[in-house]
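Listing 4. Sequential folding, example run.
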Amino acid sequence: MTTPEDRVRGFPAFGAQGGRGQFARSWWGRAWIGAMEDTALDLRQLKQGRKYAAAGRVGPITVSPGRIAAVVDDQEGQYRTEVRLAELTGDEWDRFLDRVASRAGHLAALLDRDMPHDLVEAADDAGVHLLPGIGDLDPDCDCPGWELPCRHAAALSFQASWLLDADPFVLLLMRGKGERELLDELQRRNAPRFVRTGDDDIDAERAYADEPGPLPDLAAFAPTGGPTVPGAPDIPAEAFALLVANAGQMAGALLASQPKLTRKQDVVRLAATRPETADRLRPAENGEDFDRAVLAWRHGGRAGLDVLETAWTPPSQAMGRARAAFAEVVDDPGEGLDIERNHCTVHGTGVQVRLGKDGLWYPYRDQWPAGAPEADPGTLFAALLG
């Protein structure tokens, strides 16, 4: 059942990002930005909007069907700004959900907060256009400017790309349906159908209206006796049985103590720890992103993958430590280090170190993981810069 919370989502304001700010890391986020930029009448407004977004001038953002809205600060005051996007029709939603339900991988990807290319392409083939194109985004603002978009609507659109990067369900909500509503409808489409043989004199309407009967007692099918293990010289078979039971208990305790991996994370883990499986697991599309994720896991495990895929804003003292470490390594630090959230990039070199939430610093070169993490960022700067 749809609740008001399913149809309206609020997001806290992004703080000032420092540096120039980076927008639209995902391909669908870039499509959103592209739809806005391709329609813009004044590129100066886009440039100013980018600065406003990076400076944290956009207030809390509200997303609802057909609309994303926020208040944007300006030197002249505060302005109510929104960007509208047409909702899908009922028929379009049916066609889209039928496509998603027909491929288990599509639903798994959405739940992993991913928007696969083939899902969007399948929707396009069905005449359902999820991503906005030229002219689909309709900005509106109560500022006196006449530009479309004005700098306030541009700032909101740039920050919206961060929301889309993190959760493609934000785009689907703008198209008209909330996450819970979508999952309920997909569950109904994937529910098993119980079909009668037709030889019981019950009409079809009555048959499909009946609730299915109870499942059989699965305990009757449980194997008994446990594994059969032969003995070995001076080792009785009972000892092997005890070892098997103990290993099972330890594995269960280990799994219970660890955060559950998503399907995507588990595939990356398997490819990283069992290299012989990597070629088979590597997807046909976005293969380079997969290789980068596998390398991140090999160097830093799950924490390394999180550092690759997620940017966050650490305490200023931590980033100040990185700047001080950089100054100790180079002869003339000048303006050579650009700090953006938890990323520290050395201008013109492709060298970057990223701070993980585990307190370790991870080396990168040309956006690729470049080694194991270290507790001291200076050690990494020295190694990467030679």
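-- end of first protein; second protein begins --
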Amino acid sequence: MSVPVPADLETQVERALAEDIGGGDLTAALIPAGAQGRASVITREPAIICGRPYVNATFLHLDPQVRIDWRVEEGTNAHADQLLFVVSGSARALLTGERTALNFLQLLSATATAAHRYVTLIQGTGCRLLDTRKTIPGLRTAQKYAVRVGGGQNHRIGLFDGVLIKENHIVAAGSITAAVTNARAQQPRARVEVEVENIDELREAIAVGADIAMLDDFPLAQLREAVALNRASTKPLLLEASGGVTEDSVRVIAETGVDYVSVGAITKHINAVDLSMRFEWRTAGSVASEPPTAS
């Protein structure tokens, strides 16, 4: 199933291009205005490829006549040195858009790849992977899109689409019960989640009728206790394990019976996928040698 692209994709691309181009690309201006170019992009390492819509929007914004021939589908597990796409059009446009297009592709592919690793590790447990709000500023919807391409699910997009009552909210409200009660009164249609730090707080969250309990940094034995308590309740919640989850620990956490495990690392602790873009271009029927990859 294809993942819908974020509504603000064009805005993000335009902002990224404006950040890079400013008043104009001084170096690309050295290339004759009528020169046509062709470039091939490969990945130098295995990755889940994500970001095709962002690459397309980048080059089409600079040259509406550009042609992009993708050799992989979105979400493809590509191998090292695999050709990803070939783009042809105005040489100036290709050179100007190179860095922005690759920035999107390498970041989103890295995010999708990280999400896919965690999803694979918990496969068969019934537990689902969630992201967090620990995203690169200005690129939240893009990274959350990449999480879905990698097989994960989105938590809240932001503060506006769900209630998450955390420790400081509880202190300010006076109790979990008071905080949840206020949330129900003010936002009756919103999903209400409560961060709990011990079994007694979980009992209170269950009693007051929260939708989800986030089990914050619970040891494994306490996670199992929480799952057993919740299952024995007449109105069980969904349970989300969170805090310090790693690739080494995620499987055993998922096997405790929690419904979700949230991992901030899939959007904040990532290494951009190593990509390479190589050019050739024509002026007056001649083909120039390849210029170096952009830095």
